[in-house]
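Here is one such protein, fold included:

. . .
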Amino acid sequence: MIIKLNPEVAELIGMHVGDGTLYKTKTSIVWELRGGLDEKEYYCNHVKKMLESLFKNVEFKPKFRSGGKQGCFGIQTSKKEISRFFINYGFLPGSKTHSVRIPDYIKKANREIQSAFIRGLFDTDGYLRFERINNNKDHTYPKIEFGSASILLRDDLLALLTELGYRPYKWGKKDYYKLCLAGVDNLEKFMNEITPRNVKHLNKHGFWKVHGHNNPIYAAVA
């Protein structure tokens, strides 16, 4: 049974495009979604609940996993319902690093679906930071950034964000392509319309809203 495209499905597709992996072993197809050690709350309180809402008969157990310099936190499953879901939505097992892009069914969908996809992508693979400008000692100027080894994904996202009324700009070179939404107007529009769920983003934004800056040495989440 194919789960019909809805905001939860679109958000999950965004998560997979951002930080998901689908690969074959000798006995099964495995799906993984991994984040940093500071994302435990996001995985336990949001990702797990959303997955179990979509896949009623599957239990998901976020946990620490090896990988990288310090390890990571995330979800892994070889349940057939999950691999079938991603295959049905156009994702085949194997590397997607340089070829992944926004699916056409997201590009052609309504604004709610598109925003949910961007939320999943940002929460797993986006970054919010604050820069110093005009000789200000504090980091006050917000920037939302996305980076990808896939120029197709970067350019698809540029077009989608522009269609939704944002003012992104792009840069990058071979094997790493970046996109940025800079300034207060872009940030507030993004937080109000995309409504990120990852606590690491919410903490940064919340600190900035209260204090007017988000200096790495002061911020709750740097």
The first helix runs from residue 7 to 19. The chain has eight helices and eight strands.
